[in-house]
Amino acid sequence: MQRYEIATLNTALGGAAKAAPGIEGFCREGAGRLLGCWATEIGPLNQVLILRGFDTAEDAAKERERTLRAANPFGAAEVLNGMTLDGYAPFPFLPPVEPGEYGPVYEIRTYVLKTGGVEPTIAAWEAAIPARVKYSPLTIAMYALDGAPRFTHIWPFKSLNDRAAVRAQTVTDGVWPPKGGPAWLTTDMRSTIGLPLPISPLR
């Protein structure tokens, strides 16, 4: 897949579960592929995060326009208080996202980069990822195509305790963070824990 998108839906209180059927139907009609759909558990609450993949940049652009012009985007207008669409390109050395059961706890992290930081970050991750994924899988790492220079990475874990243990062990073993990677980070870092909704292909 050449392009990915994360749609962030701000919903009414308790709106995530109500939005799920509409999200599934809306994505089925579009040009992309629904890969993940999570309700936020830790971080900004009352949000649904939707990960979609696209075979081409043209498909992603067409779907962006369809979504923006829709009277009922993601079939969720009834519970929708706001929506943000972020387009991404994958780190080129990574395989496409493959649906499956890897979680059920997913962490979605976004780091804003210093100017010129995209290429050095990709290089640092390419060197470090083979060792890092021996501890736990990586769903995707991708850099933003709009807005501030930044990248988002998504990691599945069996539990919050598993997440803490894996993160601690990789640091202890000197595997993570990628060598040279933190030098390109700003202090603008965000982390969200999401749990898959029943419609999510990533579980």
Automatic annotation (TrEMBL):
Record Gene3D superfamilies: 3.30.70.100
Protein family per UniProt: Belongs to the NipSnap family.
Name listed for the protein in its UniProt record: NIPSNAP family containing protein
Origin superkingdom: Bacteria
SUPFAM superfamilies: Dimeric alpha+beta barrel (SSF54909)
Domain NIPSNAP: start-end pairs: 27-69, 106-201
PANTHER family according to UniProt: NIPSNAP-RELATED, PROTEIN NIPSNAP
Lineage start: Bacteria, Pseudomonadati, Pseudomonadota, Alphaproteobacteria, Acetobacterales
InterPro entries attached to this UniProt entry: Dimeric_a/b-barrel, NIPSNAP, NipSnap_domain
